[in-house]
Write a structure and sequence with these properties.
The complex is a heterotrimer.
Chain A: H1 2-32, H2 39-55, H3 60-88, H4 96-116, E1 131-134, E2 137-140, H5 141-163, H6 165-175, H7 177-182, H8 187-209, H9 220-234, H10 239-259, H11 265-279, H12 284-288
Antiparallel strand pairs in A: 1-2
Helix pairs in contact in A: 1-5, 1-6, 1-8, 1-9, 1-10, 2-3, 2-4, 2-8, 2-9, 3-4, 3-8, 5-6, 5-8, 6-8, 9-10, 9-11, 10-11
Chain B: E1 4-13, E2 16-26, E3 31-35, H1 42-49, E4 57-62, E5 65-66, H2 72-78, E6 80-82, H3 95-103, H4 110-124, H5 139-152, E7 157-161, H6 169-184, E8 188-192, H7 196-202, E9 205-210, E10 213-218, H8 220-225, H9 227-234
Helix pairs in contact in B: 3-4, 3-5, 4-5
Chain C: H1 2-20, H2 24-49, H3 58-75, H4 81-101, H5 107-126, H6 128-131, E1 137-138, H7 147-168, H8 171-181, H9 183-188, H10 193-219, E2 221-222, H11 224-227, H12 230-244, H13 251-267, H14 269-281, H15 284-295, H16 297-311, H17 315-318, H18 320-333
Antiparallel strand pairs in C: 1-2
Helix pairs in contact in C: 1-7, 2-7, 2-8, 2-10, 2-12, 2-13, 3-4, 3-5, 3-10, 4-10, 7-10, 8-10, 12-13, 13-16, 14-15
The chains are: A mainly alpha, B alpha/beta, C mainly alpha.
Chain lengths: 290, 239, 334
């Protein structure tokens, strides 16, 4: 029973971070209708920002305030100059935007490799390996803080989407781009802001993950995969779904690692992903209608 | 028994009943008009006949065969062709290639398909623009291409969904001529049309529906004089 | 016949090439190019012509390679049997692949194919008893010279492109493109869309699997991360087709040439140009720059992709008219 509880706790804590990654992705998917295959690579970049700042003595949690605006700007630039121009061009395949994100992901990864080499980097803080206990269950201090911050960001995101004009415009664009345009929403600007926000959120996840994980250029790919597993689980474009998806993936990975073996961690996610695609297209959104 | 008939056709989308118990029969060689205000369930009926989706309940019978559970491509092979109200040109193919693709439903070799397609284009008056990409056609050309493509599948029964909408008077006249020519060829036609002048001129019989239910059936004259039809189109004040 | 002249001349040149070129390095590059012709053209059948953009073609490549490797590993059969069976095994894998992916459209299809491609990599890694897991499979190459491999690769490339050309020019090709342009219209024209999507997938999987089987024979070593690699195969297949021209017969061939040449161009520091200049001038800066360029070859790749999508969205073949026009304009201006 303790092992089980321990596994669940670890899964939920990880799920908090996954939620941050997922919300960024789901916003982009919802508003642009495309999958962003550079999402994990953006996170990787944020991790390196955290790493560089750390070598200068800046705490990872402080570097949030640097990495998030930086990645927001990068996201804005990518959407404005690389993705939006493609909308007007007619091509055989409508997937050109997705393929563009593949190219962007490659470039980001290789720039990181060029600058930092392929070596694993670590950020060691005095809380990196510290744990505390509630009963017999151990909690990683860093992951618990990360979970808390992830909750705050998620709540802030909800407030933004529900209560502000800009947030409402984003939701309107996600629901029906043409209708939103007719209502006077500048959808071009909305896509730019959304990509910026998505990048900023995944940057936050990168900063929070940095103290407890290795940093290397190829870390982006696997996290891109996780991002869209979360998004499909939750339902494309659903922010509430991203929370469900994030926590479910965290739990599933953690249970899989405990009861099947470490090597099954990834395949559990993929299996759930394919099952959801097959039997519940639309994800949790379909069940909850949110 | 009628050559083609639908019996108590019902289609529900979630809580909405789009078609509610429509029944009619069409004789071989007839031009049968299907009319009704916007959203009355005409296109939904066509979609059920052509197998886009199955009816919630009811039957579609073509030459004594129930086809309501068949897929679109099977129904096409049985001899039911259709056009789409919202035209669906195969955009990045030429007009000729569009029709060749359709001809392949009856022949397998490229040579046969090509010559069949050329004949169909000639019949439909599209020969001069056969090398034009479908996506660059104006609306009249697209509507005509829809008909040509459906004709290339050699249908015995042709479903025409608002092929006259959006045409200018000259084009309208040509469209009516084409439809008559198709009927003279021995093809039975069910036609949905909003332009009253068109449907009243060419239909042998007309079936009117509103809110998914039958309100009248008869010759064009009878239907035009029917109070329920007038009410459906013009509102209660005129009835 | 004028239309066929260029491919025929090209074919003659390729057939005579080993007589003129003795460099093993060059032949190796040519073999890679030919393999990519096969893979890129296969992907193009499913995606470019039928409109089903797969992000999981590594699955078919890897399955073909593993068919050859496992026949040798478990049954002591010559891995060349893999060339006979690899394509068919890839088709067998393709059928459930299609059953899962084809009901889905657009982004969902892309994601599902990607997940399946990744899933099969994990399976190959975990099933150690059967596949050898991360240890991979090693075989002794049959030939020491690269020439036989070159001709086998050439035959495979010619057969695949030719067969694809025949199919595309006939009924199935018309049906594939109809499905790409509008599925509902296609169904109304009597096209069994599910059947023809699966036919397209089978052709695509077959040739990709054959390329995989040849890869095993030629390289002599495979492991799951090599042959099931998302980036090195699934994504690269897409890039080859995109750069050359999606939905054109010879686009992937052109794309394969550009990609392989481009990669080597960077990897070797512009074919040793920097090294040469560095030695000549004695400048360490130029040598260092050369080293940097070599390291950045994948970066160059990524940039190429971005530039192509931005400026030649239909690829070199698809946008050939545009390229000609712009080049002419520059000439006139000059």
């Amino acid at each position: 029973m303790d092992v089980f509880l321990q596994t669940v706790v670890a899964g939920v804590l990880k799920g908090g971070l996954y939620t941050l990654i997922g919300i960024g992705m789901t916003l982009i998917m919802g508003v642009m209708g495309i999958i962003n295959l550079a999402h994990g690579q953006l996170m990787m970049l944020a991790m390196y920002v955290t790493f560089v700042l750390n070598t200068m003595g800046v705490d990872p949690y402080v570097s949030l305030f640097v990495a998030m605006p930086l990645l927001f700007l990068l996201g804005v630039v990518i959407q404005k100059f690389l993705l939006n121009p493609l909308i007007k061009v007619e091509t055989i395949l409508p997937e050109n935007q997705v393929l563009m994100t593949v190219g962007i992901g490659m470039v980001l990864t290789e720039i990181a490799r060029f600058v930092f080499s392929s070596d694993y980097k670590y950020i060691t803080t005095d809380y990196s390996n510290r744990t505390f206990y509630l009963g017999k269950i151990s909690f990683s201090v860093a992951l618990t803080i990360a979970f808390g911050i992830a909750l705050v960001f998620t709540a802030a995101m909800f407030w933004f989407l529900l209560k502000t004009d800009l947030g409402r415009s984003i939701r309107a664009t996600a629901q029906d781009k043409d209708a939103a345009t007719l209502m006077g929403v500048n959808t071009g600007r909305i896509t730019v802001i959304t990509f910026g926000l998505g990048s900023g959120l995944v940057a936050a996840a990168g900063c929070l993950l940095a103290p407890v994980y290795y940093i290397f250029p190829d870390i982006g790919g696997p996290f891109t995969a996780k991002a869209f597993i979360i998004t499909i689980l939750g339902g494309l474009g659903s922010t509430v779904g991203a929370i469900f998806g994030g926590v479910t993936l965290g739990l599933a990975e953690s249970l899989g690692a405990t009861y099947l073996g470490m090597e099954y961690e990834d395949i559990v996610g993929l299996t759930i992903f394919i099952l959801v695609l097959l039997f519940l297209p639309g994800g949790f959104k379909r069940l909850t209608k949110v | 028994m009628a050559y083609f008939r639908v019996e108590k056709l019902v289609k529900k989308f979630g809580g909405l009943t789009a078609v509610n118990g429509v029944t009619f029969g069409v004789e071989k060689g007839e031009i049968f008009g299907l009319i009704g205000p916007n959203g009355s369930g005409k296109t939904t009926t066509f979609n059920m006949i052509s197998g886009v989706y199955p009816p919630t309940s009811g039957k579609v019978v073509f030459r004594n065969r129930e086809i309501q559970r068949m897929k679109s491509h099977r129904i096409c092979h049985l001899g039911v062709g259709r056009t789409f109200q919202v035209v669906k040109p195969l955009g990045r193919m030429t007009v000729l290639d569009n029709v060749i693709a359709a001809s392949f439903s009856r022949v397998n070799s490229m040579r046969e398909a090509r010559s069949a397609a050329l004949r169909t284009l000639e019949f439909c008056g599209l020969s001069s623009i056969r090398e034009v990409l479908a996506k660059s056609l104006p609306i009249a050309g697209r509507k005509r291409l829809e008909i040509a493509r459906a004709m290339a599948t050699r249908p015995e029964l042709l479903l025409l969904d608002e092929t006259a909408a959006g045409l200018n008077p000259t084009e309208l006249f040509e469209a009516i001529e084409l439809i008559r020519k198709i009927r003279e060829n021995g093809t039975t036609i069910i036609i949905i049309e909003h332009i009253m002048h068109v449907i009243m001129t060419i239909s042998d019989r007309i079936h009117a529906i509103n809110f998914g239910q039958t309100i009248a059936e008869g010759t064009p004259k009878e239907v035009a004089a029917n109070p329920a039809v007038i009410e459906a189109y013009l509102g209660t004040d005129y009835a | 016949m004028k239309k066929n002249l260029l491919p025929l001349v090209l074919l003659a040149v390729l057939a005579l090439l080993p007589l003129a070129v003795k460099s093993n390095y060059f032949l190796h590059l040519m073999i890679l190019f030919l393999l990519w012709v096969v893979i890129g053209s296969s992907w193009n059948v499913l995606a470019g012509f039928t409109g089903q953009v797969s992000f999981g073609h590594a699955a078919f490549f890897g399955v073909g390679a593993y068919t050859a490797g496992l026949l040798f590993q478990h049954l002591q059969l010559s891995p060349w049997w893999g060339m006979a069976l690899g394509g068919f095994v890839a088709v067998l894998i393709g059928l459930p692949f299609g059953a899962i992916c084809f009901p889905l459209r657009g982004a969902y299809f892309a994601l599902a194919s990607l997940a399946l491609g990744e899933g099969i990599r994990h399976v190959a890694t975990i099933a150690e008893n059967f596949t050898g897991g991360m240890m991979g499979i090693m075989i002794m190459p049959t030939f020491i010279s690269k020439v036989p491999y070159y001709y086998i690769a050439l035959a495979l490339a010619v057969l695949s492109v030719l067969s694809i050309r025949l199919v595309i020019g006939a009924k199935p090709g018309y049906y594939f493109v109809s499905i790409r342009e509008d599925q509902d219209a296609a169904a109304s024209l009597g096209i069994n869309t599910t059947l023809y999507k699966n036919i397209s997938l089978s052709i695509s999987a077959f040739w990709t699997g054959m390329a995989g089987a040849l890869y095993m024979n030629y390289m002599g070593f495979i492991d799951p991360n090599v042959v099931f690699s998302l980036h090195d195969y699934s994504v690269m297949a897409i890039l080859v087709a995109i750069v050359g021209g999606v939905g054109t017969i010879y686009g992937p061939t052109v794309g394969a040439f550009i990609m392989v040449a481009f990669q080597e161009f960077f990897r070797t520091g512009f074919f040793g140009l920097f090294e040469y200049l560095g030695e000549k001038t004695g400048s360490t800066a130029i040598s260092a720059l050369g080293g940097a360029v070599q390291q950045a070859h994948v970066l160059g790749f990524g940039i190429l992709v971005i530039v192509v999508i931005l400026f030649l969205p239909n690829g070199v073949v698809g946008d050939w008219e545009k390229i000609k026009r712009n080049v002419f304009r520059i000439n006139q201006a000059g």
